[in-house]
Amino acid sequence: MKEEAVVFGTNTDLVGVITNPKERNDELPAFVFLNAGMTHRIGPSRLHVRFARELSEIGHTVIRFDFSGLGDSSRRTDDLPIAESVVRETREAMDLLEKKCKIKRFILIGICSGATISYLTSKHDDRVAGVVLINAQSHLHGMDTALGEYLREQTFAKHAWRIALRSSFRRKNFRKAIGGQLNPIRIMKMMLGLPMSILFGNREQGSSAKAHDALADLKSVLERGVKVYHLYSEGDEGLDYFNLMLSPAQQATCNQGNSRLSIMLGANHVFTVLWSQDELLKDVMNWTREEFH
Question: What residues contact 52, with CB distance under 8 A and at least 6 apart?
Fold first, then answer.
């Protein structure tokens, strides 16, 4: 394994690190790791570093880089909207590896916002062979900001109900509430938000959410041959967004063909606990071997 710092990009200086395998297999796609929120390219708890080195051991070239304005990358000086700039910069990372390493296929991977950007980029670039969407949220309804705000409210309410009544760690949460570690009033407000919004909420946005065919959008990506892996931690709100956008019958199709869905019990949003990091790494490595080796 050899790691190399790089600077690239047409409109700004993007900084990244390429992890090269000891023996590169030209038939294997390269991995592109995208920032999780404001965390720079090492990832939460240095997960991106660990992933990159493990993936290089089985022959994959990996790049992890910072979007403009994050980490070591300089800020943008143009007026391109952020939703467009992050997709462009992801494609520029692929351009770099294509030119430098002659790699033509890529797997995009990210946590939270990194997952959303991975999915959006896969809709615009035919070089994407796979996406690993870890705790993705707001990726299935497009760029409709008004609808997104409605879905965010619904997601928070559904999340509170699920965590309180149906999660594997609900007893632990009740003990925390009794012990004063959680704010029960805030939680009750979130839980009551769902029935109240159903009765008195924005009916127009509710109708838009029902009318939006998220599965058709997902199928359009899958039909191009992109392998899609939705991976959620049980404690994440993204899982409730996913449940809101796709019915149980539709979700069943996410475990067929090029699509896979996995839920990790007991894990939180950024996999803080070491055992959950180990499980996440094992799941992604197994998926990679099964789908691309």
Answer: 17, 19, 31, 33, 62, 64
Give the three-class secondary structure for 262. strand
Q: Which amino acid, residue 49? A: V
Q: Which amino acid does the sequence have at 193?
A: G
Q: β-pairing, 62-65 with 30-34?
A: parallel
In the CATH hierarchy, which fold is given to the domain comprising 2-143+213-292?
Answer: Rossmann fold (3.40.50)
From first to last of its 293 residues, the chain has per-residue pLDDT tens of 899 999 999 877 999 999 999 887 878 999 999 999 999 999 999 999 999 999 999 999 999 999 999 999 999 888 889 989 999 999 999 999 999 999 999 999 999 999 999 999 999 899 999 999 999 988 988 656 667 777 877 887 787 777 776 666 555 555 555 555 556 655 555 555 555 554 444 444 444 555 467 888 899 999 999 999 999 999 899 999 998 888 888 888 888 899 999 999 989 999 999 999 999 999 999 999 999 99
Asked whether 140 and 245 are in contact (CB, 8 A), the reply is yes
pTM (2 d.p.): 0.86
Task: Provide the residue ranges of all domains of the chain, joining segments of one domain with +.
Answer: 2-143+213-292, 145-206
